[in-house]
Write a structure and sequence with these properties.
11 helices; 18 strands; 2 domains; five-stranded parallel β-sheet; six-stranded mixed β-sheet; 21% strand; Rossmann fold; alpha/beta
Length: 332
C-alpha cells in the first residue's frame, strides 16, 4: 500500500490506493475516473494496516477524488486512535461520515475532520499543510528517488545518456518501476489525473522511447485513447518512422509521453517530426524532469510528477565525460 510517513504521521491517499486494488485480476480494460470508490479488497488491507501503525502516530486519510467509501466509516467506529480526514469534497461523503461517526469533529469549512481528538489550531495547521495533493506528491517523489542510482565513485564512470549524448552523475533506472506494479499503476494514475485535469484537447498519445511506450500503453488504456510509438529518437539510434505518415493524422492533436526528461532532445525531435506531418503536440507528460523551465511545448503544457531540482535531487549533466567527473569529485 502507498503511504507517506513522517515522524508523527502516517498519510494514506485513498484514491491512489483504491484505484490499484480495485483492478480486477486478469482484466485488459481499465479506465481512469476522477472519482474512485473504496472496494472491499482495499478496505480489508487498509484496516489491517491500521493495526501495524505505531500507536504514537496519527493516521491521516486523504479523501481527495474519493466518492464512495461507506463501509470504511463503519469500520472506523471501533478504532480509538486519532484519525484526520482531509479533502472531504463530496457532500454525500460528508453526510455519510457524519452519520456513521457521530463523535467526529469537522472544521468550520467542513473540508477537514478529526476522530478521537479535538480539532484545535494545531490540528488545523496539519490539515492545511497536507491538503491539496501534498501527500500524493510526496509518494511520487519517494518512488522516483528509488529509481535513481548513484554512479560508483571508485572508479568514477559517468553515465552516458543515449537520448542526448551527454554525461550524468546518476543513473535513472526507470525499468525498476515496472518490477513493482503498485508503483507503476500509482504513477499512471497520477499522470492520467494530470492529463484529465489539464482539459487539453487531444486525439491520441505518442511516445519515442521504450519506457515511454510502456507508460503510453497503460495511459492509452486508462484514457481510452489511441497510442502511437516512434522508437529511437536520439544520437545512439537511427530513427524508425515505420508507417508514421499513415499513423499520424493531419490536424490531429497528440500528447507526448516520456519517462524521464533531461534536456528535452527527444521531445524537440518529435515535435519537429509531428509538425512536418501537419499534426500538433498540445502537451507532454512524464514521470520526472530535470529541466522544467524549457519552453518547447505548445502553451507550455508540460505535465510531470516530480522535478528533480525542486526536490533537491543532486542530478547533474555535462557535455564532456571529464566535466562530469570533475563535478562528481566536488560532491565527495
Amino acid at each position: 500500500m502507498q503511504v507517506y510517513e513522517e515522524q508523527d504521521f502516517v498519510m494514506i491517499p485513498l484514491a491512489m490506493n483504491a484505484f490499484f486494488y480495485n483492478i480486477p485480476v486478469g482484466t485488459d480494460k481499465i479506465r481512469y475516473s476522477n472519482s474512485v470508490s473504496i472496494g472491499e479488497k482495499f478496505l480489508a488491507i487498509l484496516v489491517q494496516y491500521f493495526d501495524k501503525v505505531d500507536e504514537g502516530k496519527y493516521i491521516i486519510l486523504d479523501l481527495q477524488d474519493t466518492d464512495y467509501a461507506f463501509h470504511l466509516f463503519q469500520k472506523l467506529k471501533t478504532i480509538t486512535r486519532p484519525i484526520l480526514f482531509l479533502n472531504i469534497i463530496s457532500e454525500t461523503l460528508h453526510d455519510k461520515i457524519k452519520e456513521d461517526l457521530p463523535t467526529i469533529q469537522f472544521s468550520a469549512e467542513q473540508r477537514y475532520a478529526v476522530l478521537n481528538i479535538s480539532f484545535d489550531d494545531t490540528i488545523k495547521e496539519i490539515c492545511e499543510k497536507y491538503s491539496s495533493s501534498v501527500i500524493s506528491h510526496n509518494i511520487y517523489v519517494k518512488i522516483v528517488r528509488n529509481l535513481i542510482d548513484d554512479i560508483p565513485q571508485n572508479p568514477v564512470e559517468p553515465q552516458k545518456l543515449d537520448s542526448s549524448g551527454l554525461y550524468s552523475n546518476m543513473y535513472v533506472n526507470v525499468k525498476r518501476l515496472f518490477k513493482y506494479p503498485e508503483n507503476y499503476y500509482s504513477i499512471a494514475f497520477g499522470l492520467a489525473k494530470k492529463i484529465v485535469d489539464s482539459k487539453i484537447e487531444y486525439d491520441g498519445l505518442i511516445s519515442s522511447s521504450k519506457n515511454g511506450a510502456i507508460l503510453a500503453n497503460l495511459l492509452g488504456m486508462l484514457l481510452n485513447k489511441k497510442v502511437i510509438h516512434i522508437i529511437g529518437l536520439g544520437p545512439k539510434y537511427s530513427m524508425n518512422t515505420g508507417n508514421l505518415q499513415k499513423e499520424i493524422k493531419k490536424r490531429k492533436n497528440y500528447i507526448y509521453v516520456f519517462d524521464f526528461r533531461c534536456t528535452g532532445t527527444e521531445m524537440k525531435a518529435l515535435l519537429a517530426l509531428i509538425s512536418a506531418n501537419e499534426a500538433y503536440v498540445t502537451g507532454a507528460t512524464g514521470i520526472a524532469v530535470y529541466k522544467s523551465d524549457q519552453i518547447d511545448i505548445v502553451n507550455n503544457n508540460l505535465m510531470y510528477l516530480v522535478d528533480l531540482k525542486t526536490e533537491n535531487i543532486p542530478y547533474k549533466i555535462a557535455g564532456e565525460k571529464e566535466d562530469i567527473i570533475t563535478l562528481m569529485s566536488k560532491q565527495q
